Amino acid sequence: MRIANRIGRLGTETAFAVGAEAGAFAAQGNTVYPFHLGDLNLATPSTVVDGAFRAVTDGKTGYCPNAGIPQLRAALAADVSASHGVEYGPENVVVQPGGKPTIGKFIMALMNPGDEVLYPNPGYPIYESQIEFHGGVAVPYAYIEGADGFELDFDAMEASITDKTTLLILNDLQNPMGAESSAAEHAKLAELVLKHDLYVLVDEAYFDMRYEGTSSSFVSQPGMLERSVILYTFSKKFAMTGWRLGASIGPKKVVDVIAKINVNDESCSNHFIQYGALAGLEGDQSEVRAILNTLQERRDVAVDILNSIDGIACFRPNATFYLWPNVSELMATKGMDDYEVFRRAALHATGVSFCTRLHFGRETPNETNRYIRFAYSGIDVPEIQEGLGRFKDWCES
Amino acid sequence: MRIANRIGRLGTETAFAVGAEAGAFAAQGNTVYPFHLGDLNLATPSTVVDGAFRAVTDGKTGYCPNAGIPQLRAALAADVSASHGVEYGPENVVVQPGGKPTIGKFIMALMNPGDEVLYPNPGYPIYESQIEFHGGVAVPYAYIEGADGFELDFDAMEASITDKTTLLILNDLQNPMGAESSAAEHAKLAELVLKHDLYVLVDEAYFDMRYEGTSSSFVSQPGMLERSVILYTFSKKFAMTGWRLGASIGPKKVVDVIAKINVNDESCSNHFIQYGALAGLEGDQSEVRAILNTLQERRDVAVDILNSIDGIACFRPNATFYLWPNVSELMATKGMDDYEVFRRAALHATGVSFCTRLHFGRETPNETNRYIRFAYSGIDVPEIQEGLGRFKDWCES
After folding, report:
1. What is the pLDDT of residue B15?
2. Does B227 lie at the interface with A, CB-CB under 8 angstroms?
3. Structural Rg of chain B based on CA atoms
4. Is residue A141 within 8 Å of residue A156, measured between CB atoms?
5. Pairing verdict, β B322-323 and B246-249
6. Does A359 touch chain B (CB under 8 A)?
7. A141 bridge partner residues
């Protein structure tokens, strides 16, 4: 079959190959410590499960509105309004089968071919893929190491803006770095957005995955509510990655367009799961808090061991479930310049499986530091201790 | 916000407006007879429900492979191979969140901008929308009345083919007409496909919704397996419209491309529902047969009443859950030339709500006959009798 030309511009998530390699290594009888997974090995709260099952029994198994059931749109608008300090109504919410669909739909709704789109790199690789697939120009921006976390490389970002730049993708709190913008950074970024008349995808997949302090949203900056679409997902907070439910939240004008794309792409999101999510939002939050407590404990154990390893320096992000240690010194000591050589050597010597910078967008010129990504969402504390203990021994041998 | 230019080419399902009008009329205290709904008011079989619930309890709540769980791909390949008399393997199946996603993904995978695509009109309006949205030229083909059902207007179809025609969309068995191609028609169409080197989307959403005889698939024609992608859905057979599960089935080369689109668009389909569908395919089929028996009874009641009305002539399709009566004479007698005037007059006089030809693609030149669509999937026999009784009285008054 003759495949269409646009498929040549379609990217993917190369991290799946890491999972496949880890699986193959495990199949040979080896113990694998899965730090490559951006998935949770925790159960979905019973509020969600019970709400969904009840809805099936109640016959919520037929089609529902393309934009989602009104009750969920209203509940999500109320929830996000409260946590963000803004005012959204149900008309600002369009339900999606997951967080990811918002990326492509935002781009289809707002980007013309030839438009330049700022996106984080290292970052979630689907941004780059979807921008180019739909005929845009993907313009990367970077984060640099600050005193206690990663900071936007603001000057480089501004220098890359041209009169063709129309959109900005902000992933705050960020995968893979765990980076988080300060209020000052948000304010500076909002100025930039107004100055250059940009619209913004605010990917907040990890907004609620927070252990200390309070998340603040870019959309609460003056003038940004009208220019931003939030990517919301139930996947992380409610350990619902495999259920596939999320939402796009933004100005009615673009939300209506995205709902029309829903009509074309998948009719609607699963009907009864929306009742489950509604029960999750409105019900008892103790299981949600338990998920966060578990993740926080894992973070602290992992960060402490990583920072005890010679040649590794790792921030302790207050949010997400990712660590992005700087391994420049370690790789130099090991005499390994190539990420894939380093990653495979670690896997085969220790069973510790992780992603590297290579899995988060194309490398950009002048990158000198080396980073790898550890996800602690899919591995329990005893295995974190055992796996990273082995990794430490290998690093220091 | 500045909406992208491509959104100007995006269509929708105007039938939703009919549902909204019916809802508004009901809200005023009127009885509405919902013949406009392409949805089922029947319960999902317990095999599917139990299988899905069990999978949640077993922790199938995290991500699954982008192309679907291997067990479901294998079971679906076996099921479709058996019913179609062809040989598919798991590598030919990519699971989707519904039947509809296959339409857009087929077009993105195989159509270049400027390509001409043959599609049925009257037909499912999303074909027209997705072809034009992705930059193609939508070229309609029609069905004409034969002795005991609708037949492809073959000569007109062939006359519309140019050297830019690359794809054909075939919806067999057909919504809204209930049309079904004979073996001879399939053979003739396969010749045409080979002669003009076309690839084919075979939308078989209603393949298993059959009351008498056996469905035969276009893909079993010589040479067509390599040139066709089947749109498969669990929605109708298992009364699962709101669960959102289906698949694209075709040559590995295009299935791999569609799986890569899955990675970008929604990561994967719901994990535990795939176990429910697997249980539905492999479990006891008595509830599936009961659904078909119920629908057949509704069909016979509805067809008999419609054909008893002066000025209406209606085929009795062996498949789908749609009727497409010719109401040319009736509308002339009523002095109503406009579809919307006729539809609203009927709704307000009788409570009977239906779609018309207008909801199934743009009208084409030289259409002389008038048709409306009755769906009997969402209304029980007593309401069919009562509603169509009132409709008959109004028609003949």
Report:
1. 87
2. yes
3. 21
4. yes
5. unpaired
6. no
7. A120
Does pLDDT of B28 surpass 90?
A: yes
Give the one of A10, A112, A226 whose C-beta lies nearest to B264's C-beta: A10
- Using pLDDT thresholds of 50, 70 and 90, give the confidence band for residue A16: confident
Q: What is the DSSP string of A111-141?
A: --TT-EEEEESSS-HHHHHHHHHTT-EEEEE
All structural domains of chain B: 5-43+287-395 (3.90.1150.10), 62-282 (3.40.640.10)
Helical (H) or strand (E) element with B353: strand B352-353
| β-bridge mates for residue B141, sequence order | B120
What are the structure tokens assigned to A74, written together?
Answer: 């209203």
A97/B7 Cβ within 8 A: no
Q: Tell me how far apart the alpha carbons of residues B141 and B28 are, in angstroms, rounded to a whole number.
A: 40
Provide φ and ψ at B353, rounded to 5°. Answer: -110, 125
Integer Cα distance of A312 and A326 in angstroms: 6
Cα–Cα nearest to B394, from B324, B355, B336, B315: B336
- Beta bridge mates, B119: B140
Transcribe B244-286 into DSSP letters. --EEEES-HHHHHHHHHHHHHHTSSS-HHHHHHHHHHHHS--H
Contact of B66 with chain A, judged by CB distance below 8 Å, is answered with: yes
pLDDT tens readout for residues A90-115: 999 999 999 999 999 999 999 999 99
**pLDDT score for B12:** 94
Structure confidence at residue A100 (pLDDT)? 98
Task: Tell me which of B56, B96, B269 to substitute to probe the interface with A (most A C-beta atoms closer than 10 Å).
Answer: B56
pTM over 0.95: yes
Only one residue has tokens 């199949």, namely A27
Q: Amino acid identity of A206?
A: Y
- Chain B residues with CB under 8 Å of A256 CB are none
Both tokens assigned to B174: 């057909």
- Under the banding of pLDDT at 50, 70 and 90, the label for residue A69 is very high
Tokens of B116: 């001409």
Identify which of B393, B391, B384, B380 has the alpha carbon closest to the alpha carbon of residue B302: B384
A277 three-state secondary structure: helix
